[in-house]
From TrEMBL:
<dbReference type="GO" id="GO:0003677">
    <property type="term" value="F:DNA binding"/>
</dbReference>
<comment type="subunit">
    <text>Homodimer.</text>
</comment>
<protein>
    <submittedName>
        <fullName>Pur operon repressor</fullName>
    </submittedName>
</protein>
<keyword id="KW-0804">Transcription</keyword>
<dbReference type="InterPro" id="IPR029057">
    <property type="entry name" value="PRTase-like"/>
</dbReference>
<dbReference type="GO" id="GO:0045982">
    <property type="term" value="P:negative regulation of purine nucleobase metabolic process"/>
</dbReference>
<dbReference type="InterPro" id="IPR010078">
    <property type="entry name" value="PurR_Bsub"/>
</dbReference>
<dbReference type="Pfam" id="PF09182">
    <property type="entry name" value="PuR_N"/>
</dbReference>
<feature type="domain" description="Bacterial purine repressor N-terminal">
    <location>
        <begin position="5"/>
        <end position="74"/>
    </location>
</feature>
<dbReference type="InterPro" id="IPR015265">
    <property type="entry name" value="PuR_N"/>
</dbReference>
<dbReference type="InterPro" id="IPR050118">
    <property type="entry name" value="Pur/Pyrimidine_PRTase"/>
</dbReference>
<dbReference type="InterPro" id="IPR000836">
    <property type="entry name" value="PRTase_dom"/>
</dbReference>
<comment type="similarity">
    <text>Belongs to the purine/pyrimidine phosphoribosyltransferase family. PurR subfamily.</text>
</comment>
<keyword id="KW-0805">Transcription regulation</keyword>
<dbReference type="Pfam" id="PF00156">
    <property type="entry name" value="Pribosyltran"/>
</dbReference>
<dbReference type="InterPro" id="IPR036388">
    <property type="entry name" value="WH-like_DNA-bd_sf"/>
</dbReference>
<feature type="domain" description="Phosphoribosyltransferase">
    <location>
        <begin position="110"/>
        <end position="243"/>
    </location>
</feature>
Length: 275
């Protein structure tokens, strides 16, 4: 790359960091890339760090030593996250979103890049202190949420299937009981999709009693993997506590009431904002 003016270098360096979250980049790599002294690079990084933190874009962590460098971690201030989630809750309360069984139609919202980017940063912030190797979700509506979170954490995604696909080779399949319908269902994961003893963050779009998530946990046991955390976009608050199959999870929104006759719902920010 040709030598840039400082203003141009700051813009390019910022973009470089934003495109590589959770990646350690050495000062030497930056110095070589921009043909600048390490002292100048350090001053530039200090400016970027200040702006990132003041504007709530994220944090820039500096690691000292010969093998050190900087690492950009996407974050979102809780005040901003709460403001965004309140707007999302209002949209989710639209009467035409109520489906039989107390579910919500969310497919259109889960196709909006700006919403997904915000939710991905929220989950990345919520689990920033966890050591995570991979994100797991079950097809289909949880997939965009999982990839949005993975983009912020810079880790891969594995997708649990409802049935085994020939194109994925041998797989591990289990039966699980749906917490809401009490029906026995099947889920499977290709053996090559997940390394044994991985630390896994489970992301799901909607949780009632938690049967699907418990099924994914049981599936992870077959891979000798560890559940590093569970993130849910919307949880149902109409499930009795004794019927809930898991307790340790983070939700961004909570469906607290639904009237099937009037199609009226009440949705509030989830336990991420109250715990």
């Amino acid at each position: 790359m040709k030598k840039l003016k400082r203003s141009s270098r700051l813009v390019e360096m910022t973009q470089y960091l934003l495109a590589r979250p959770h990646t350690l980049i050495s000062l030497t790599a930056f110095a070589d890339r921009y043909q600048s002294a390490k002292s100048s690079i350090s001053e530039d990084l200090a400016i970027i760090k200040e702006v990132f933190e003041e504007e709530g874009i994220g944090e820039l962590h500096t690691l000292a030593g010969a093998a050190g460098g900087v690492k950009y971690m996407p974050m979102m201030r809780e005040s901003l996250a709460l403001e965004i989630m309140k707007e999302i809750c209002k949209k989710l309360e639209q009467p035409d979103r109520v489906l039989p069984g107390g579910y919500l139609y969310m497919t259109d919202m889960l196709g909006q890049p700006d919403l997904l980017a915000d939710v991905g940063r929220m989950f990345a912030t919520a689990f920033a202190d966890r050591k995570i190797d991979v994100i797991m979700t079950v097809e289909t509506k949880g997939i965009p949420l999982a990839y949005a979170t993975a983009a912020c954490l810079n880790i891969p995604v594995v997708i649990v299937r409802r049935d085994n696909k020939v194109t994925e080779g041998s797989a591990v399949s289990i039966n699980y009981v749906s917490g809401s319908t009490k029906r026995i269902q099947t889920m499977s994961l290709a053996r090559r999709a997940l390394k044994e003893q991985s630390r896994v963050l489970i992301i799901d779009d909607f949780m009632k009693a938690g049967g699907t998530i418990q099924g994914m946990m049981d599936l992870l046991y077959e891979f000798k993997a560890t559940v590093a955390g569970v993130g849910v976009f919307v949880e149902s608050g109409e499930v009795e506590m004794e019927e809930r199959l898991l307790e340790d999870y983070i939700s961004l929104a909570k469906l607290t009431a639904v009237d099937m006759k009037t199609k009226q719902t009440t949705i509030i920010p989830g336990n991420y904002f109250t715990s």
